[in-house]
Specification:
With 159 residues, this protein is of the alpha/beta class. It contains four helices and six strands; from the N terminus they run αβαβαβββαβ.
């Protein structure tokens, strides 16, 4: 056997279908697109079009409202903070803020800030600086001898 005698197994490579090359090819005339109409033409994308009938996405009632500039906070529980402190990922002696939590790998990006929630148990005395915290989380941190620092609330001006 020589190099010029090497070939694939029969049926290993399938040639591409050449459409629109005569009626005898099996894919002639309409080239497998059916007959006539908009979808037999090229460059047509009719997503959600139901032939003149009111489309499903317009028939169903719309519910609710999402504010377009709504803030999204990363949620961190007290139990998660305690585990990070136990694993030496966070230093309880320093102020724990969003950057420290990010470096410890508690979340991938800080988004609009961090919100502290009271799930879990906290034993370490820590000082936390976050964008928001639940009442139970603040109470638990203060009970452990620490404190929670929140940003100042905006003062509404009298009209």
């Amino acid at each position: 056997m020589r190099l010029n005698q090497i070939s694939d197994n029969p049926g290993a490579r399938k040639g591409r279908m050449r459409v629109g090359r005569g009626i005898g090819s099996g894919k002639g005339k309409t080239a497998g697109r059916g007959v006539k109409g908009q979808k037999s033409r090229t460059g047509v994308a009719i997503k959600g079009f139901e032939g003149g009938q009111m489309p499903l996405y317009r028939r169903i009632p719309k519910r609710g409202f999402r504010p377009p500039h709504q803030k999204t906070y990363q949620v961190v529980n007290l139990g998660t903070l305690q585990k990070a402190i136990d694993d030496k990922k966070l230093d309880a002696a320093k102020v724990i803020d969003a950057e420290a939590m990010l470096a410890a790998g508690l979340f991938k990006n800080a988004a609009d800030g961090v919100r502290l929630l009271g799930k879990g148990e906290l034993k370490a005395k820590i000082e936390v600086k976050v964008a928001g915290a639940s009442a139970s989380a603040i109470a638990a941190v203060e009970k452990a001898g620490g404190k929670v620092e929140l940003p100042p609330k905006p003062v509404a001006e009298a009209a």
